[in-house]
Design a protein that fits this description.
This protein has two helices and eleven strands, in the order αβββββββββββα. It is α+β, with helices and mostly antiparallel strands. The strands form three sheets. It has a five-stranded mixed β-sheet, with no helix packed on it. Helix 1 runs antiparallel to helix 2. It is elongated and about 105 Å long.
Length: 271
């Protein structure tokens, strides 16, 4: 009876230890208070409006404009960008409109959508159009030649394509929201970037020494709420330890079942 009890207690303890890792697989960004959410969009990569994950940003613009936002994404996340465009009055439009949502990483490389409606055509009488793009898992490290998503700033560009001259400049409004699912150890890799791919690297003068004119690099303030991940920890460590303990317990249990109860009493000693 002792072996089953040991196995039961060990499994319960491992279940408690693995619970935080399982909880991490839930979406990492919950809707936040939109009181401070941005109400405008940039017109280029350099002027992209910064938004946090979970915020619902809004903006007003004109058909034909390029609208830009930026957001931080860390290793182990799978970001999803959703946009809703409230189109101009149907009576002012002359044809259907095709809208496109593009996402770029910190190196301004266009990232492929794993799934989602990245491009949609709205009928002439449609009131709105919804687009979405779910990226691949953000990796902590990648080969220089690869196009894998890496930790850092991501840019969202929203625009209508192929508009006729009569449909340019019509007023519209847009809602954009970014959320992420934490993929945990299933997307973990060995290695990490020295610095996340973020814009706005500036130099600040070191004022601690009046005789020194040394400068230090300062990164943009755009980062996840809990800071950038170190790149070495993932829940793979928990599941690896879990598997190792199970293997050890299985070995102990197998030995206990096969070793028998010792020398039978009917067999004399020395035989």
């Amino acid at each position: 009876m002792r072996i089953p009890r040991v196995l039961t207690v060990a499994l319960l303890l491992l279940g408690v230890a693995a619970a935080p890792a399982v909880a991490d697989s839930s979406p990492s960004a919950s809707p936040s208070d939109d009181g401070g959410a941005p109400t405008q969009a940039g017109t280029s990569f350099r002027t992209a409006t910064e938004i946090e994950q979970g915020q619902q940003a809004t903006a007003s613009g004109s058909s034909g404009d390029y609208l830009y936002w930026s957001f931080p994404a860390d290793a182990g996340q799978r970001p999803t960008v959703k946009a809703t465009v409230k189109l101009p009055e149907a009576s002012t439009r002359n044809a259907a409109q095709t809208w496109q949502l593009d996402v770029y990483d910190g190196l301004r490389r266009r990232q492929a959508c794993q799934y989602g409606a990245q491009t949609r055509t709205a009928a002439q009488d449609a009131a709105s159009v919804e687009l979405s793009c779910t990226l691949r898992n953000v990796r902590a490290w990648s080969e220089t030649w690869a196009d894998d998503p890496l930790p850092g700033t991501y840019y969202v560009r929203l625009t209508a394509t192929g508009l006729g001259a009569a449909d340019l400049g019509l007023p519209l409004s847009v809602e954009v929201q970014v959320s992420s699912k934490d993929v945990g150890g299933s997307g973990a890799v060995d290695g990490a970037l020295a610095q996340p791919l973020v814009p706005g690297v500036a130099t600040a003068v070191d004022t601690s020494d009046e005789e020194s004119d040394s400068t230090t690099a300062t990164l943009s303030s755009l980062e996840p709420d809990d800071g950038w991940a170190s790149g070495w920890w993932s829940d793979r460590w928990v599941w690896t330890a879990f598997g190792g303990v199970l293997a050890a317990l299985a070995g102990i249990g197998g030995y206990a079942l096969t070793r028998g109860s010792g020398r039978p009493s009917r067999v004399p000693r020395g035989v």
